[in-house]
Amino acid sequence: MTPLPLPKVTIHTDGGAAPNPGAGAWAAVLQYGSNAWEISGAVPATTNNRMELQAAIQALRALNRPCAVTLYTDSDYVRQGITSWITGWKRNGWKTAAKEPVKNRDLWIELDGFAVRHQIEWKWLKGHAGHRWNERCDELATRAMDRLRREHSPAQLRAALEEFKGSGVG
Q1: pTM (predicted TM-score)
Q2: What are residue 84's phi and psi, to 5 degrees?
Q3: Which residues are catalytic?
């Protein structure tokens, strides 16, 4: 019996923090056939890399069954990390080649857990270069960041940043 082909989904992601580190946001556009679904979120204190990872994690989390995914990211850190570096990190007990702890290990583990459910082709594209869906993700992340800044005072954001910096995460 031949297995049914996997549903084909195209995902575009983006994330960032301003300043870096600082308040951050992520967004993704998931496309299946002629349908598009937009998701986004924000956190009071983070880094650009953590938000780029979070965009991919949340997009893959949103898929309720295994899919054939083409995932576009403007983060070479995400693409290289998940397609190349992660194998060595896992083999070396989550240490880099320089024997340093892998930054954002918690998110890499989470991303890897979602990634193994799907057949993913990871593609890099240049950010802020007029690509329709990358620009849309940037708009969604910017809106999420704006909402976050309206919901938190500057003092709350400063306190969150100090706590983040002291946590050793990222």
Answers
A1: 0.94
A2: -135, -60
A3: 14-15, 52, 74, 128, 138
